[in-house]
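Subgroup meeting minutes
Present: P.N., E.W., G.H.
Scribe: E.W.

1. P.N. recapped why we're keeping a running log of single-chain structure predictions: easier to compare across weeks, and new members can see raw inputs and outputs side by side.
2. G.H. added today's entry (81 aa).
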Amino acid sequence: MNLTCRAELTIETDYASVVAGALSPELAEKIPRTRISVAPGDRKVLVNIEAEDQTALRAALNSYIRWTNVAEETAKEARRA
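Output recorded in log:
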């Protein structure tokens, strides 16, 4: 795989472990032409995406941003309950 495009997302959140845990199963589902890693930190989640082309990079970014938002909003609602 010839990876030519790269993006790094740093998500700052009070729910870093929840978000990282929610993203982890998605790593098993391969997004074509990409390689992705997720690393939790203290109040941060780091997502590295490498892709063969801009189209694959955009698709992966959109997916991970959406999944991150869903995980964080779910964690917030669970805390309020």
